[in-house]
Write a structure and sequence with these properties.
Layout lengths: L7 H12 L19 E5 L2 E4 H9 L3 H9 L1 H23 L6 H24 L6 H10 L5 E2 L2 E9 L2 H12 L4 H8 L3 H4 L4 E6 L5 H7 L11 E3 L2 E11 L2 E2 L2 H31 L10 H4 L3
Antiparallel strand pairs: 1-2, 3-8, 4-5, 4-7, 6-7
Helix pairs in contact: 3-4, 6-11
Length: about 290
């Protein structure tokens, strides 16, 4: 496994937003002491607790969270980065860095995002999708959950019809398909495997090829088939009929889809109600001065 590095700057950016609303924790306050298992690190009267660590961890992408959980060195590195970040913040404050207009604007913007997020969660948290709703959707849309017919075939691709016809005749006389594919096919990727293409659906191949392959039975060999790539001699090896996926295999997928649809519908309704509350005037024509000035 390749070594995973967590750059400090990236960590600051990833954890900064989630931690922005938290105040510095001091050992002078009541709470866990440095000897407590809840305290992971201390410096100059400050501490980082298990809760601090867990909250910062939640702000990382899921893949990175998993990697840290699996690797002791990464866990320690993440803690070290949190300590470094807190020391840098403390140093910045002690150096006299003051809030300016841009900082206040960004804080206000972030606060508004938090308020909006909490409001939307409260308004939409009632949304649920039952197993019965999912089953009703499944029964009504079974075609969505049917895997299409698939064919496993191999082919020999050549440039001329004459060459393809010669190969076809040789195969009908009992020539070895694998040997001819390796010797003559210009599709080098499949030629190395004796012309094998594996399973494919009708939509995976160009129409003339699919029309021929999906009209054949296992073991049959086609007459030369012309496509934009040249002339193919095809042999079908196996056919998989369409298969209906069981409800239990797609239930969670359906519930997720229905949940998102319900959520979007509720959000659109909420927006419509808000827009009725106030009279809004917009002047999109004035946007030209922003873009034309560049």
């Amino acid at each position: 496994m390749k070594r995973l590095i967590i750059p400090l700057l990236a960590l600051l950016l990833l954890t900064g937003a989630a931690q922005a609303q938290k105040k510095t924790t001091s050992l002078k306050k009541k709470g866990p002491t440095s000897a407590s298992p809840q305290v992971l690190a201390t410096f100059d009267g400050e501490k980082i607790t298990v809760q601090d660590y867990q909250e910062a961890l939640k702000t990382l992408p899921a893949q990175l969270q998993w990697a840290i959980a699996q690797n002791r060195n990464l866990r320690a590195k993440f803690l070290d980065n949190l300590v470094t970040k807190k020391m840098l913040v403390k140093t910045a404050k002690e150096s006299g860095v003051k809030e300016d207009q841009e900082m206040r604007r960004r804080i206000e913007e972030f606060k508004n995002e938090l308020i909006l997020g909490k409001y939307l969660r409260e308004k939409l948290e009632h949304i649920k999708v039952t197993d019965q709703e999912a089953k009703a959707y499944y029964d009504k849309h079974k075609r969505e959950f049917t895997t299409p017919k698939e064919v496993r075939a191999r082919h020999i691709l050549v440039k001329t019809k004459e060459k393809a016809e010669k190969i076809y005749k040789d195969l009908k006389k009992g020539a070895d398909f694998t040997k001819l594919a390796k010797e003559y096919s210009i599709d080098k990727a499949s030629a190395e495997k004796g012309g094998e293409l594996g399973f494919f659906t009708r939509a995976d191949m160009v129409k003339p090829f699919s029309d021929a392959a999906f009209s054949m039975k296992p073991g049959e060999i086609s007459q030369p088939v012309k496509t934009p790539f040249g002339y193919h001699v095809i042999q079908v090896e196996e056919v998989k009929p369409p298969q209906q996926k069981a409800f239990k295999d797609v239930k969670e997928e359906i519930k997720k889809q229905l949940f998102q649809e319900k959520q979007q519908k509720a959000f659109d309704k909420l927006v419509a109600q808000v827009k009725k509350k106030w009279k809004v005037e917009t002047h999109p024509e004035k946007l030209d001065q922003i873009f034309n000035s560049k």
